[in-house]
Amino acid sequence: MPVRSVELEHLKEMILKMAMTVEAAIKDSVRSLVERDSELARRVIDEDRKINTFDVQIDEECVRLLALKQPMGKDLRFITTAMKITTDLERIADNAVNIAERALELNEEPLLKPYIDIPKMSRIAQGMVRDTIDAFINEDKQLAKDVIMRDDEVDDLNETVIKELMFIMTQDPSTVSRAVKISYISKYLERIADHSTNIAETVIYMVEGKIIRHMLPDQI
Amino acid sequence: MPVRSVELEHLKEMILKMAMTVEAAIKDSVRSLVERDSELARRVIDEDRKINTFDVQIDEECVRLLALKQPMGKDLRFITTAMKITTDLERIADNAVNIAERALELNEEPLLKPYIDIPKMSRIAQGMVRDTIDAFINEDKQLAKDVIMRDDEVDDLNETVIKELMFIMTQDPSTVSRAVKISYISKYLERIADHSTNIAETVIYMVEGKIIRHMLPDQI
Questions:
Q1: May I ask the CATH class of domain B5-219?
Q2: Which of A30, A35, A44, A174 has the fewest beta carbons under 10 Å from its own?
Q3: ipTM, interface predicted TM-score of the complex
Q4: A88, A90, A167, A180, best to mutate vs chain B, most B CBs in 10 Å
Q5: Using 50, 70 and 90 to split pLDDT, how confident is the model at A143?
Q6: What is the mean pLDDT of residues A66-77?
């Protein structure tokens, strides 16, 4: 029995909604740090439940479609891709929660220095999440490749942040506890970009039927 | 058409082999650090290709079985679970590579202090990977729950390691660069334990048909 397109549209909608919620969680977690807004940090932590619910619902819907509709070809690929994508989205949200948790701690201590690269990383990471899901919905291979390329920017920014923090710690040992927490936040953002890259690779696989997950960038 | 049991057995074998290779990668990556064996570290990095190949092959086999056999009920759950599990196994291996990369750097510098908690974390994490896959193959819900409980031990050890490293950095700023690298290794091991927990949760879901992914420990 073919999957009716209304069912696939419904699945797409659920994923879009989940992705929008995840993107907002990243944004708010970093805002709670930059604006030292602990109330907002707590809200990010609380709202993770919503994202977990999306994850479970989409997973159930995919298994239901596989079982009842026994889809073939393109539809089958779309559904197995959806199952993988939501796992990554859910873990991106977990990283946003981790950022909010560190923000709560950092907001209790004096500001180490104004945050410049962290918001920049966050903006790139949010764009990667948004575009990778758009690439999925529209089967846009080029956009997915573009997301993968942006991962290097986040990696470079992360390296810059870590180096700077190590320098600050070496100069003034009283900064160690705060600097380590900020370095975690940088790492969480890097991981969010990695998950977006994973999604983008899965999308290309879906479109091309070609596994690029373990290829080098110049092979893609 | 039902999936022939010989095909499921073959799939199980592939996953077992992949898991054994991943377990060895964790063990060797930490050994390359503790024994300051950079040759071994490079081998871990090289052999990641093998694990990536397993990942692709298992994924392809799962999609093939879904397409050609259109499995129902238990078999369908088993195959979708297998697809999720290998993603986690592959990412565990990525963390082992990250450990080996940090080991290569640390082996070039004087030893900061003998490693005690890191090997302990590694042993627990390896056991978690092994048991979580055994739980999957034997549909052993109890073993999967047991793995989830062990995650706290790794989290606690990670916290101990990080606190100790922060103390060392505060006392002697010349240790910052090494201490930060060691703290990453501790984090990578913690993430390996998290991935094993994810697998265990997926296994319980497969056995019980109940999503425990987002439940609190006392609800499990």
A1: mainly alpha
A2: A174
A3: 0.85
A4: A180
A5: very high
A6: 88
